[in-house]
Amino acid sequence: MKRKKLGIKAVAMTTAVMSAAVLGCGSNESQDNSYKVELSQERFDELSGLYNMICDDEGNPIDLGGMEIVIRDWWSSGVTDEPVSDYEEAREEYRAWIQEAYNFKIKQIAISDWESTPSDFIQYVESGGDGKNYVWVMREDSSTVAAMMSGLAYDLSTLDCLDFEDAKFRRNGLHEQYSIGDSIYGMYIGYSEPRTGVYFNKDLLSSVGIEPDDIYDMQANGTWTWDEFDRIMSLVQRDLNGDGLDDVFGVTTNEGAMTKAAVYSNGGEFVGKDEEGKFVYCLENPETVEALKWVSEIYGKYDQHEPEDASWDYYKEEFLSGTVAFLVEDEYAGTPGNYLYDADFEMGFVMFPKGPEAEKCVNCWSNNPVFIPNVYDADTAWKIAFAYNLYTNEPAGYEDYVDYSAAMAGVFDTRAINETISMMMQPEHGIVTYTGMMPNVDVFEYLWYIGPNSDVDSLITEIAPMFREMIDDANKL
Questions:
Q1: How many angstroms separate the CA atoms of 173 and 269, rounded?
Q2: In the chain, what is the straight-line distance between the N-terminal and C-terminal CA atoms, in Å?
Q3: Which of 244, 215, 211 is nearest to 228 (CA)?
Q4: Arithmetic mean of pLDDT, 445-451
Q5: Which class is 41-193+367-403 in CATH?
Q6: What is the dotted CATH code of the domain comprising 196-364+409-476?
Q7: Which pLDDT band holds residue 18 (cuts at 50, 70, 90)?
Q8: N or C end of the chain: smaller count of CB under 10 Å?
Q9: Which residues, including other chains, have CB under 8 Å from residue 409's CB and lie 6 or more apart?
Q10: pLDDT, position 44
Q11: What is the pLDDT of residues 110-135, one digit of tens each?
Q12: Do domains 41-193+367-403 and 196-364+409-476 have the same CATH topology?
């Protein structure tokens, strides 16, 4: 049956997931929502006046025949709490309306856990499925990409109920990452999560005459650059007791995360993609090499060297000790339940500064791709995608709604919430990267050796053949 896309009035995008606890939930598929919205006929009719029905070629509303659809992830409890805001109430009413209007049921629940999700997906498709209708939330992982390249994910570009020019897809660009040629295998709805930025200890900055708000001002006016970052660290790092050893340091970080952020902040890349959808080698691009040399120099000047026998995440306690001015880290670290939440000093949070080859600060988009398993016939896949597309629209009146509740509950000050996090979620500051798209390979294993005052040219010479082979292998798939 051909469908006529008439559109839905006043629905657009989903709330960005600011942060999510990673839970090993096992299989909870038997659970159901404990809270359900029951629509009276009067309320159903009122909502029908807000949304245009989508009809088939004969003018009849699409009827999904009572099918049940499960959005499976690794964190959802399967229990829907009563709404605590006008937005949540409107969203739950809208979702109740679409299920009644188009005759289907849908719920989101943890079935796999974070670790097993990619392998569970592969096993599910290779076994031919189990007759259930899944939308599968995956994670960025080399095995996820291998599954996509092996034909285990349904080609979403063939489903005309999905319009990838819609703002809710363009706001994150993930479908561009998970594409091969004209085919699209992964999608994400709504604004991208804020990712790697720079936390700063306000007390340490103030102690050397740096007004913390000045960093926010530089971010706002476009002058928050590598050079300014370097200048401020040079003022903060110092020997307090005259023993010839620094007691306060400029920066600490997971070096791998900061190395990536530095490259992207200068317009560099490790792996790119050409117009034909082929992966291309970018390790020796001038912007990339410049960033690798700069970040290695910064480590040498301002990063306290890793103590002997330290754990990989020693930098967390180092920042919490109050002896380091800056921490390069993801936004989620400052939300409830994460390690910065109980810090005993005031912090600010800005985007990673821009390099000399960049025009603006950037947020490297990194979201969980959503796949439809390639076990369904075209009609079933269309219906699953149609239902999911409706489910992820926003209710009327909330088309541009963004949920800042996680940030507001965290360690962030007003300017971090209203300026930094808001900026990170805007498409004009987002970039799509392809380094994580190499199947069965962790590209960044090669880059952990970028440390204080590294010989970057020699390292590139050493790993370039492996990079090229890795990219060639990906293109063969």
A1: 16
A2: 34
A3: 215
A4: 74
A5: alpha beta
A6: 3.40.190.10
A7: very low
A8: N
A9: 335, 336
A10: 94
A11: 999 999 999 999 999 999 999 999 99
A12: yes
Token duo for residue 420: 């930094």
pLDDT tens track for 367-397: 899 999 999 999 999 999 999 999 999 999 9
* Portion of the chain with pLDDT greater than 70, in percent: 91
Domain ranges of the chain: 41-193+367-403, 196-364+409-476
In the prediction, which pLDDT does 405 show?
82
The residue among 286 and 78 whose pLDDT is bigger is 286
